[in-house]
Specification:
With 536 residues, this protein is an alpha+beta fold. It has ten helices and 22 strands. The longest helix has 29 residues.
Length: 536
C-alpha cells in the first residue's frame, strides 16, 4: 500500500508532534535539574523491528541509541513475551545502546488490534546510579563496573504494575533515590502519553495508512540524503583530532582518525586508524559513532529532512574492534562526550576538504561539573548538583562562533544561576564572558565563559569531567585556535590548578571552584580589524 504525498506529510508531522509532546511531558515532570533545566533527554517512536519512525532531536546522539536499545529488548525477551502493559529498562552500553550507564532508556510496546506494532521510548541522564563518586561518572574509572549499576534489558513494568524488586535495587544503589525514581517514572509517563497518541493516530487514519506513510517517509529521507550526496564531487580525504588524555594516562593524547570516501550516492566514514581502546573512560560504541556521523551529514546538508531511520540507512561507517570507537567489554566509557566531539570535528574537517560542507572550526566540546553534598538526615535538599555545558562554538565559513552555548551533539541548556542557588548549597560569585578569547580569523570563534562557585556546606565533594584543557580548539582555513579551558580551586588565595578530570576533591564551606570553558576556533584569515560581534 502507498499513500499520497499530502497524507504522508500529515502523518509524518503528526508522529513528530507525538514525540514533541512526549518530550515536553518529560521535561515538565522531571525531578532532577539534569532533565528539567539541562534537557539531557530524548524521546522517539519506533517500529516493531526497532527502526526509528520519528524522533525529536534534542540530543542528536540519541538517534543511534534507540534502535540498539529496542533491538536488545527484542533479543532478550522475544516478541511473544512482550505484553501491551509492559515496559522495559536498559542502560548497558555493551548489551544495550546507552552512551554510558547514567543514560537510562525506558521502552514501552504499543499494541494495536492485539498486535505489537510500535514502541515508544525515552532516554534520560540520571543524577546518580551508584559507583565510587557522587554522580556516578568517575573520570578515573578503568572498567564499566566502576561506573554504577548496569541493566541489560529488564522488565520494569508487567501488566501495568511496576516491579518492586527493580525499584528496590535502584533505590538501594543510588545516592539520590527519589530523584532517580522520579525521573524514571517521568520517562514511563511520557512513554504512556506517546503510546496513547500513536493508537489515536491508528484509529483516526487507519493502521495500514500510518504504516505506509512511515515506510514511505523513511525511504524518502534516505533518498533525499543520497541524492544530495550524488550532487557532491567524488573524492577521499582524511582528518584527525586528539583528546587531551583518557584521565588515567595523563598527558598522553588520544588520536581519532577518519578517512571519508565519497563515490556517487555512497558515503563511507572509516575510523580504523583511530587509537586502541582507552584505559580510562573515553571509549564509545559504534552506535554512537554512527549517530555522530549522521549529525555531520545533516550539518553539511543545505536542506532539512525528517528525523527517522532513513538518516542512518544513507551512509556507512567502519570501526576497528579493540579501538577507542569499538572497545571490548569491560572498557569504561562514562566520559564519552569528548570522544564524540572528536569524531564530529574530524569528520567535518574531512568533508570540508572535499568541499562538501562549509568549513567549520572546532568548538569547546563539553564538560560536566558534579558537586556531591553531605545532607544531614531529614534534609530533603538534593545531594548532587550535575551540570553540563560547553563554552564557545567554532566559527564557520560564513559566520562567527557563538558565545556561551552548547556545541555539536550536546544540545542542552546551561543551568540558570537561580536554580543552582535555590536547590543547592552553592553561591555563584561570577558568571561572565571571557571577551576576545575566541580564535582570530575572518570569522571569529565564540568566546568562552567563566563560572565561580562558592561552596556553602562542609563535606562537599567535587568531580570534573572536562576536555580541551591541554589541546586547544582548532581553527580552520587560516583561522586561529581557540583558548583552552582551565579549572582551579580558590583562585583568589592559594590557588590550586585542577586537571580536566578530577575525582572526589574534598571541599569545605567558603571554598571557591573556578571553571573557564574553552572558546571556539576561528575560520579564515583575518582581513580586517573589525570589532568582533558576540552572540550569547
Amino acid at each position: 500500500m502507498s499513500v499520497d504525498s499530502i497524507s504522508e506529510e500529515v502523518l509524518n508531522a503528526s508522529l513528530a508532534g507525538v514525540v514533541k509532546q512526549m518530550q515536553e511531558a518529560l521535561f515538565r515532570t522531571g525531578f532532577s535539574t539534569i532533565i528539567r533545566e539541562s534537557h539531557d533527554a530524548s524521546c522517539a517512536v519506533l517500529l516493531a523491528d526497532g527502526r526509528v519512525a520519528a524522533q525529536h532531536i534534542v540530543l542528536p546522539l540519541h538517534l543511534g541509541v534507540f534502535p540498539v536499545s529496542v533491538a536488545a529488548v527484542i533479543a532478550a525477551y522475544g516478541l511473544d513475551d512482550i505484553g501491551p502493559d509492559d515496559a522495559f529498562l536498559v542502560n548497558h552500553p555493551y548489551i544495550g545502546g546507552s552512551p554510558h550507564a547514567p543514560d537510562m532508556c525506558v521502552i514501552k510496546p504499543v499494541f494495536v488490534n492485539g498486535a505489537l506494532l510500535f514502541f515508544t521510548a525515552s532516554i534520560a541522564h540520571k543524577s546518580d546510579i551508584g559507583g565510587p563518586v557522587p554522580g556516578s561518572c568517575s573520570g578515573k574509572a578503568t572498567d564499566i563496573f566502576s561506573e554504577g549499576m548496569h541493566f541489560p534489558p529488564v522488565r520494569f513494568v508487567r501488566d501495568g504494575v511496576v516491579s518492586k524488586e527493580v525499584e528496590t535495587i535502584i533505590r538501594a544503589n543510588s545516592r539520590t533515590p527519589d530523584l532517580v525514581m522520579g525521573d524514571i517514572r517521568g520517562q514511563l509517563g511520557c512513554c504512556h502519553v506517546g503510546a496513547r497518541r500513536v493508537i489515536d493516530l491508528c484509529q483516526k487514519y487507519g493502521l495500514e495508512t500510518l504504516n505506509a506513510a512511515v515506510e514511505q517517509r523513511i525511504a524518502a529521507t534516505e533518498l533525499v540524503i543520497r541524492r544530495t550526496l550524488g550532487e557532491w564531487a567524488d573524492g577521499e580525504a582524511s582528518a584527525e583530532r586528539f583528546l587531551d588524555d583518557d584521565g588515567i594516562r595523563v598527558g598522553q593524547p588520544i588520536r581519532i582518525a577518519v578517512t571519508v570516501k565519497k563515490l556517487g550516492e555512497e558515503l563511507h566514514f572509516d575510523f580504523s586508524a583511530s587509537d586502541d581502546q582507552a584505559v580510562g573512560p573515553a571509549n564509545i560504541r559504534p552506535s554512537l559513532v554512527k549517530a555522530a556521523c549522521a549529525y555531520v551529514i545533516l550539518a553539511a546538508m543545505d536542506r532539512e529532512v525528517s528525523v527517522n531511520q532513513g538518516i542512518l540507512n544513507a551512509f556507512a561507517i567502519t570501526t576497528r574492534p579493540g579501538s577507542i570507537l569499538e572497545p571490548r567489554i569491560p572498557a569504561p566509557m562514562n566520559t564519552y562526550n569528548a570522544t564524540v566531539h572528536a569524531v564530529i570535528n574530524a569528520s567535518l574537517d574531512a568533508l570540508g576538504q572535499l568541499g562538501q560542507a562549509a568549513q567549520r572550526a572546532d568548538g569547546s566540546d563539553s564538560r560536566s561539573l558534579i558537586f556531591g553534598f553531605s545532607r544531614p538526615e531529614g534534609d530533603v535538599g538534593s545531594a548532587i548538583s550535575y551540570e553540563i555545558f560547553a563554552g564557545g562554538s567554532g566559527a564557520s565559513a560564513g559566520f562567527d562562533g557563538l558565545t556561551g552555548c552548547h556545541v555539536n551533539q550536546t544540545n542542552g541548556r546551561i543551568t540558570p544561576i537561580e536554580i543552582l542557588e535555590t536547590e543547592y548549597p552553592l553561591r555563584i560569585r561570577q558568571f561572565s564572558v571571557l571577551h576576545d578569547s575566541g580564535g582570530e580569523g575572518e570569522h571569529r570563534g565564540g568566546d568562552a565563559f567563566r563560572r565561580d562557585y562558592e561552596i556553602l556546606m562542609d563535606q562537599t565533594r567535587l568531580s570534573i569531567r572536562s576536555s580541551r584543557h591541554a589541546i586547544a580548539p582548532r581553527g580552520v582555513a587560516g583561522g586561529g585556535d581557540g583558548r583552552p579551558g582551565a579549572a582551579c580551586l580558590n583562585p583568589d588565595h592559594d590557588a590550586k590548578s585542577l586537571s580536566a578530570r578530577e575525582v572526589n576533591i574534598p571541599l569545605g564551606a567558603g571554598d571557591v571552584v573556578r571553571l573557564d570553558t574553552p572558546s571556539g576556533g576561528g575560520c579564515g584569515v583575518k582581513i580586517s580589524s573589525r570589532r568582533r560581534s558576540c552572540a550569547a
